[in-house]
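@channel sequence for tomorrow's demo:
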Amino acid sequence: MKSLRLRVILASVLWTAGLLSLMHLVSLIVIHTLPAVGDPHTAIVGTLVGTVLMLAGGLVAWRSLLPLRGLEQKVLEVTRGQASRVHGAYPSEVQPVIDRLNAMLDDRERAIARAQAAAGDLAHALKTPLALLQREADAARSAGHTELADAIAAQVRRMTSQVDRQLTRARIAASGPAATDGSLLAPHVDGLVRAMQRLHAERQLDISASVPPDLAVRVRPEDIDEILGNLLDNACKWAHSLVRVTAGRDGARVRIVIDDDGEGLQPEAREAALARGVRLDEATPGSGLGLAIVRDLVEHYRGAVSLDKSSMGGLRAVVTLPAAT
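structure tokens (generated this afternoon):
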């Protein structure tokens, strides 16, 4: 029986029939006496029939609602990215909704694929003009036109940054729901610290990290590297000599803190950096921080990013992300 409506009606009929049988038996016992009922077996049979009907009604109702209990878990798996569709057979009243939901997921997947392809085509189309502009900047610098070369190079960097950001946003959209089974944080932080030590070797920065080995976040590995890599690289660029990365569990969240001993930022600059639609390198010329990609990724995972004054004297970047259970 595929209809939930018919199942509920059948359960109600069975339950009501069983209840009426028991009530009729009780009324006979109260009005008369048990011997007056006649054959004592009649009372026993009536009791058994009523009980069986009520149990049958309860069983039908329970089995009718069982697919709906499983449906919640299947939808949750889709939202967490553990499944791409809602699979299973459901009552005829519910199945059309499931079919429409799966059709919407199909349409979304195709739209994302088209958007991702368009973003890739755009990035590829811009590479050649940007490379030519950079070559012109180099030629102008060689000819002694330093100011012109710097102006062109600055615009090339800005356009390249925008292209990279849009490609990252396309990748975020293509990745689907913000979910993963969880990634250990320490290996990523250790790898990034080693990379920064090599990248900034000439400055001999003291870069260290303190992350519990079992601490995990519900973030895809490549996005951990994107988020922390941007913040850590910025800290290294502006630090005088020290950069520290610490992380710990805070309830259902993981709190990651990156400190440096650089000049830091004024409160109004920190606020401008986190304002939606504003990049820090626009609010504070020359800072080159660019929190746009970091903010987009962190918000994709329902986390938060903030800037504050570090106890080391420079800037403190704080990222909170969902912990992996």
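heads up for whoever presents: The radius of gyration is 33 Å.
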